[in-house]
Amino acid sequence: MARSALMNVMVGAAAKAGRRLARDFGEVENLQVSVKGPGDFVTKADLEAEKTIYDELSHARPDFGFLMEERGEVEGKDASHRWIVDPVDGTTNFLHAIPIFAISIALEREGQIVAAVVYNPIMDELYTAERGKGAFFNDRRLRVANRRHMTDGLVSLSIPHLGRPDHAGASRQLRNLMANSGGIRSVGSAALDLAWVAAGRFDAVVQQNIKPWNIAAGMMLVREAGGFVSDIHGRDDMFGTGTILAANERLIGELERTVNKGL
Questions:
Q1: How far apart are CA 21 and CA 74, in angstroms?
Q2: What pLDDT is attached to residue 97?
Q3: Which residues of 32-44 are buried (b: 16+ CB within 10 A; e: fewer)?
Q4: pLDDT given at position 37
Q5: N or C: less crowded end of the chain, CB within 10 Å?
Q6: What is the maximum span of the chain, computed from C-alpha positions, in angstroms?
Q7: Is 86 annotated as a binding residue?
Q8: Exposure of 253 by Cβ count < 10 A (0-12 exposed, 13-18 middle, 19+ buried)?
Q9: pLDDT < 70 regions, the chain
Q10: pLDDT of amino acid 253
Q11: For residue 131, what is the DSSP state?
């Protein structure tokens, strides 16, 4: 598949950061058994990956702004464009040497996501999309799964842990989903959750208390693979509410009703 110049820039930045993260991941596996543990090392790896991506994207498009997990908002001369970047989406997995995490890069133009890359460097899985051009997995065209009923579907959702709000609400939603779906998973990476909906691995995703950099690229992948995304209220305010639902056209309404049952 021939990629655009823009997509080549994004893939190149993700690949360069991914090579370093893959090396660091090997060190994390060794540090798991040390007394100190891998925490400090992982924080450094996260920051260095973000710097690599920032440097690569800034060099290619010097006027674009950024929204990044560590650096926050970085204004650019071109106010109509900004990169939205999570250098390691799934940091807790990385910390525990679980090879399910991803680099997430999205380009926002005039408030709309127009290009996306999600890359798992350990599995060497690359997901890409440009607006109106479809979504791809390692250059193979993606389509969301075509299941018609939640009872047949596999759903991934976020489960709040220590320090995260609304454990009671999440428990209620989990009970509702358990009673109305074919299976439940909690992967630990919103970017991969959404990429896997685009790839047909998951039928639906429910994520709450998330940031734009966790979902910007993934939601673009779902839409370009023929799926639908909304916030938990069925609206198009995922960044504002910090929530996202994703599924195919047949399941998205049922998913919304299920997670909101009893509210």
A1: 23
A2: 87
A3: eeeeeebeebbee
A4: 59
A5: C
A6: 51
A7: yes
A8: middle
A9: 1, 30-41, 163-165, 262-263
A10: 95
A11: T
Res 34: pLDDT: 54
**Structure token digits, residue 166:** 């609304």
For each of the domains in the chain, give its residue range(s) and CATH number, in order of start: 5-141 (3.30.540.10), 150-260 (3.40.190.80)
> Model-level pTM?
0.93
Given this model, what pLDDT does residue 28 score?
79
Per DSSP, which regions of the chain are E strands? 64-68, 72-74, 78-89, 102-109, 112-120, 125-130, 134-137, 140-141, 154-157, 183-185, 204-208, 228-230, 243-247
Q: Check whether 152 is labelled as a binding-site residue.
A: no
78 is in an annotated binding site: no
pLDDT in the model for residue 49? 95
Q: What is the pLDDT of residue 262?
A: 61
Locate tokens 């970017």: which residue? 191
Two tokens, residue 51: 């710097």
Nearest alpha carbon to residue 181 among 253, 255, 124: 255
